[in-house]
Design goal:
The chain is of the alpha/beta class. Helix content is about 30%, strand content about 25%.
């Protein structure tokens, strides 16, 4: 399949003053879906804002024009791939910034939206995580190189799909996640996960928090939904805090929470990095009556839309700003 062409972008003249070894702070742009997080990153790192003019044509095409002078500048874009349109907007803007003369380019992708399609299970399946990584790898390299920062990936092998001269970096939201867990915890608690696949992550978090870790064992009958067969730790009378890297439909969370409740958990909370929460996912979690609180980060714009009585949002902006403070 042919790649989408980059729309024509008009560049302004670079302001003088970059000669003589003087360095400028990284100029931070954001895609339209991640403008809130982009603003928080700029505030956290005291970075100047990159300005883009955007409009939509009647047929759905997106017009972008780089307004900020970028020639000779280190630039970054905060933008996830929560939708295919968002991914293409990020790609087009990044390509345009290089064409406008950016010195270096950093893509900050707080949510890489193809993490569960990281390998083919059945013949003919398209490994979308790989094809999207190849797409971003095709962005023309600026003189001082490019890099892509990815946060709490569902599969840790995804960075190896990036090719050529773009340098992938896997960032951890651990400081924000641990902070959220400690906010929820009052006294003893058990840190849990939805299945054995997340056990390593949860074990590491539990060790740092100094608490017991637990996970559930699942069995999938042929052609059927998975069923929980056992819980690995004693949770009777305990506050169980479940960690997962992302919440999508919420089905795995509900199944795990039911198992912990049957095992005697007195209270169940949830902490996740990525609050994807499509459709009525949050309503389903609320209607289950199993959860006293759900906390996720602002890595996905949907979480900010749904923040309210059950869902609290904590920002990963400090983590992203700290990364951007290191020269590329």
């Amino acid at each position: 399949m042919a790649l989408s062409t980059v729309p024509e972008i008009t560049c302004l003249v670079w302001r003088p003053g970059g000669a003589g070894g003087t360095t400028f702070p990284v100029l931070v742009f954001s895609t339209s879906a991640d403008e809130v997080l982009g603003a928080r990153v700029r505030a956290a790192g005291n970075f100047p804002a990159g300005e883009v003019e955007r409009k939509h044509f009647p047929d759905g095409e997106v017009y972008q024009r780089v307004v900020s002078p970028v020639r000779g500048e280190d630039v970054a874009i905060v933008g996830g791939t929560s939708t295919d349109g968002g991914a293409m907007e990020l790609y087009d803007l990044a390509s345009g910034l290089v064409e406008c003369g950016a010195r270096s380019l950093t893509l900050v992708i707080p949510y890489f939206g193809y993490g569960t399609m990281e390998r083919a299970v059945r013949p003919g399946e398209v490994v979308t995580a790989k094809t999207r990584a190849r797409l971003f790898s095709s962005i023309p390299p600026p003189p001082m190189g490019s890099r892509v920062a990815l946060l709490d990936l569902h599969s840790e092998g995804i960075p190896y799909y990036f090719e050529g001269r773009i340098r992938p970096v896997h960032l951890s939201g651990r400081p924000v996640i641990l902070g959220a867990i400690r906010e929820l915890a009052a006294g003893d608690f058990v840190l849990a996960c939805t299945d054995a696949g997340r056990a390593k992550w949860v074990q590491n978090l539990a060790n740092e928090a100094g608490v017991t870790a637990s996970f559930v064992f699942k069995r999938r009958e042929q052609g059927g939904a998975p069923t929980v067969t056992a819980v690995s730790a004693q949770v009777q009378g305990q506050h169980v805090i479940i960690y997962d890297d992302m919440i999508r439909t919420g089905s795995s969370l509900i199944n795990a929470a039911e198992a912990y409740r049957r095992s005697g958990a007195r209270k169940i909370s949830v902490v996740a990095t990525h609050g994807v929460l499509p459709g009525d996912a949050l309503s389903r979690l609320s209607a289950s009556g199993l959860f006293s609180a759900v906390v996720c980060t602002d890595s996905h714009p949907r979480a900010l839309e749904l923040e309210g009585e059950l869902l609290a949002v904590r920002s990963v902006a400090p983590v992203l700003a700290e990364f951007l403070s290191v020269p590329p």
